[in-house]
Amino acid sequence: MNYSEDRGAWYLLTGIIVGAVLGIVYTRYFQPVRYVDTSPAALRQDFKDQYRSLIAASYLANGDLVRASARLDLLQDSDTFRALTEQAQRALARDGATTEARSLGLLAIALGQAAPGPGQAITQASRLPTVTAALSTPSNLNNTDQGNSTLTVHQQDTQTIPESPELPVTTPNGIPETPLSAESFVMISMSEACDLPLSAPIIQVEVSDRSGNPAPGVLVIVTWVGGEERFFTGLKSEKGLGYADFTLNPEFVYSLRINENGSPLGNISAVRCTSDSGEPYWGAVLLKFGLQ
Amino acid sequence: MARWFRFFIAIIFGLGLGLVYGWIINPVLSVDISPDTLRIDYKTDYVLMVAEAFQEEQDLPMAIRRLAVLGNIAPVQSVDQAIEFAQKSGYIEPDIGRMQTLLSALQNLPSQQGGGP
Q1: Does B97 touch chain A (CB under 8 A)?
Q2: What is the dotted CATH code of the domain comprising A182-290?
Q3: Nearest CA-CA partner of A220 in A110, A112, A103, A92
Q4: Ranges of each domain in chain B
Q5: Which residues are CB-neighbours of A5 under 8 A, at least 6 positions away?
Q6: Predicted ipTM?
Q7: Who among B14, B41, B56 is closest to A130 (CB)?
Q8: In the prediction, which pLDDT does A134 show?
Q9: Predicted TM-score of the model (pTM)
Q10: Are the Cβ atoms of B92 and A137 closer than 8 angstroms?
Q11: How far is A62 from chain B (nearest CA, A)?
């Protein structure tokens, strides 16, 4: 009698388990939840990259950093600056110094310069459900000429730009109207820096414009036998807007040039330094470039 | 016979539990989706970004490629829907103007390639 009752209970449990497994399999493989009305944060990684590129292209067009920041917040990257710089480097490696790489780099630089105060307001706005309506407001500031394709030129009238009459025309957020990629930079100095012991040898590049101000967004190309690396100045904004560095392999000799049309500077190799106590450590090759 | 019936009921019950678990409690993660599922306000902002970039680049094929990810509809339709939403939601005129500029450029294409079947 007891045996029969126990047996009945077990096979009911078996039925439930079998049914549950079938149900889960069905919801996973045959009829998964169809998502509608999603947010950019849920996009697949390649679509997120595409979205980020579009934000940068849009920023390059309108110079509206508030709007660009709010849009980037929608992607919910753990580190927006890093996501931008990494994507810029990937774009450089893949396609060379394209508009995409440049716009991503310039947006990263602009974000690096941005003060934290406005950023907090931006974050708050982007979390609102009616985010696009919130985003629309800032462009009132700089769209005095609707539909004009040379929008950024007019922004000079309403925004303060750094005092540098010899600079190319810039937007309020530092986007060069005449790209510095078209300029021919010359080397001002080359020195070895041993002031700080480094775990690996590096090249440090500092690029300045005609006024001596740091020049962000300038393409630096490092080549060696069997390889090439491209990066922009200003992506490590904490070290200066005209700064960039590159880690060297001590076994290689490198060549470096600024922009595609720059003259290559060869025979660059790792700097070995020695401390007072005789301990060897790695130093840096410091290269300064400017416009004449 | 009653035993088989109870077994069948148990399976149905388990199936219900499985469906609730798979659709409500623990659905498939939503981090692998395409832009065509974006909510209408995000889609509109996406179209606005395309329009802003187009205003600067004047590269219509690029704009069309960017709009193509918004689903299996013609780019003209995507922009049209975005303008409609923007007008309802009180977007500022310059933004609507940019989207209308893009729409005009798309409509003036020699032969419009529809995305629908």
Answers
A1: yes
A2: 2.60.40.10
A3: A92
A4: 1-27, 38-107
A5: none
A6: 0.76
A7: B41
A8: 33
A9: 0.57
A10: yes
A11: 7
